[in-house]
């Protein structure tokens, strides 16, 4: 009988607990307190109008249970916005304006019961948003196999430069290769176009979906081809790096992108001076870019692309005559490059972003004002382990031999 009574008591207690939990879950998140009295309003609001932004500074009310201050406003494109700051701060930053009109902002003090004060209304007049100055600096010009977009973004805004062409219905449609960036100096080429005159439309957009006017242009991309590797030949100049074992320079154009036996390695025991490799591309060519696949070390069942002898900092040189290897006026510096690991993870750690950025190789562009050349040299200045030796899987050379 006692066991039956104890069982009944525990069943009753358990049912009460479950009922309490269910009720709590049904109610959802609740305010920290139950004070329905509205707090006092913020006072002494000052407005600082900035490019596309507004900074509000104010005096907080003295309510003991004040939790935060919220400002509500609507952007010129109709988007409702809200900005909050805790009671530890006396300012708010309101973003997303175009800077082409005045705007009304309502500011509320909110207590721990989520009870709001009466609104204080201020009128703001933000300055012209940075996206419009970026548009004014925009330049589109012909490039090898496509067009090149340059623009100035000194405040490093997060923007999209939408490059559009018409679809079969005659509507302007953004290309998948449109530019999304926050760098201060924008310079990017969109490739894969035939060398015939084509219409493009370009617009700049910020992350609040504010759009500039549209730049319409007709551009004829420059002819570009992948230079035939059958014409390539390795050259050994006096100061070229010693090769490990039997890994000839020709491994850089053998079509093997992963395995060690199809890659090119310089001697890692020699760390005096930068490591150089020289080769002939078979014809004097106006170069557009080199696509380079660094060797990827197989570590722990995955490929490590930013590891050991994979190049981190390097130069590309060009010439039409060979000398003893001295990098004098005979050789033109075609470009100096530094490879960035997208993830920013420490050496020896890589994620999927790193893999996606490296597995298909990367393009290293040659400026349009550089001369046509036949002989190329790659100079490894620093690899990912901090040395000079290089480990390269494959190199593609693009350009126009009929310049």
UniProtKB/TrEMBL annotation:
PROSITE patterns: FN3, PROKAR_LIPOPROTEIN. Residues 38-127 form the Fibronectin type-III domain. Keywords: Lipoprotein, Signal. It holds the Pfam family DUF5000. It comes from the Bacteria. The keyword Ion transport does not apply. Residues 1-22 form the signal peptide. InterPro entries: DUF4959, DUF5000, DUF5126, FN3_dom, FN3_sf, Galactose-bd-like_sf, Ig-like_fold. This is DUF5000 domain-containing lipoprotein. It comes from Flavobacterium magnesitis.
């Amino acid at each position: 009988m006692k066991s039956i009574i104890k069982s009944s008591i525990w069943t009753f207690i358990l049912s009460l607990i479950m009922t309490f939990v269910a009720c709590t879950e049904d109610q959802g998140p609740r305010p920290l307190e139950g004070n329905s009295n509205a707090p006092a309003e913020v006072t002494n609001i000052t407005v600082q109008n900035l490019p596309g932004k507004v900074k509000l500074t104010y005096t907080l009310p003295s309510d003991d249970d004040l939790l935060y201050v919220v400002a509500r406003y609507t952007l010129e494109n109709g988007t409702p916005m809200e900005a909050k700051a805790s009671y530890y701060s006396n300012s708010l930053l309101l973003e997303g304006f175009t800077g082409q009109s005045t705007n009304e902002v309502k500011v509320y003090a909110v207590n721990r019961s989520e009870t709001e004060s009466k609104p204080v209304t201020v009128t703001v007049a933000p300055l012209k948003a940075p996206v419009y100055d970026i548009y004014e600096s925009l330049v589109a010009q012909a490039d090898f196999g496509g067009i090149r977009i340059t623009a100035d973004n000194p405040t490093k805004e997060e923007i999209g430069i939408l490059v559009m062409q018409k679809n079969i219905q005659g509507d302007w449609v953004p290309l998948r290769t449109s530019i999304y960036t926050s760098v201060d100096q924008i310079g990017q080429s969109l490739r894969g176009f035939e060398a015939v005159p084509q219409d493009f439309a370009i617009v700049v957009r910020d992350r609040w979906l504010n759009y500039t006017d549209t730049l319409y242009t007709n551009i004829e991309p420059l002819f570009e081809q992948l230079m035939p590797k059958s014409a390539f030949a390795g050259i050994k100049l006096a100061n070229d790096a010693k090769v490990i074992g039997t890994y000839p320079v020709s491994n850089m154009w053998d079509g093997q992108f992963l395995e060690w036996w199809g890659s090119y390695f310089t001697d890692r025991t020699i760390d005096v001076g930068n490591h150089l490799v020289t080769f002939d591309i078979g014809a004097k060519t106006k170069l557009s870019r080199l696509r380079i696949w660094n060797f990827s070390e197989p570590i722990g069942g995955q490929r490590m692309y930013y590891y050991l002898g994979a190049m981190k900092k390097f130069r590309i040189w060009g010439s039409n005559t060979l000398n003893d290897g001295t990098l004098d006026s005979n050789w033109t510096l075609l470009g100096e490059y530094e490879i960035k690991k997208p993830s920013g993870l420490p050496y020896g750690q890589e994620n999927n972003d790193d893999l996606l950025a490296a597995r298909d190789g990367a393009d290293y562009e040659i400026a349009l004002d550089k001369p046509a050349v036949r002989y190329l040299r790659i100079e490894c200045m620093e690899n990912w382990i901090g040395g000079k030796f290089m480990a390269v899987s494959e190199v593609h050379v693009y350009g126009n031999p009929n310049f």
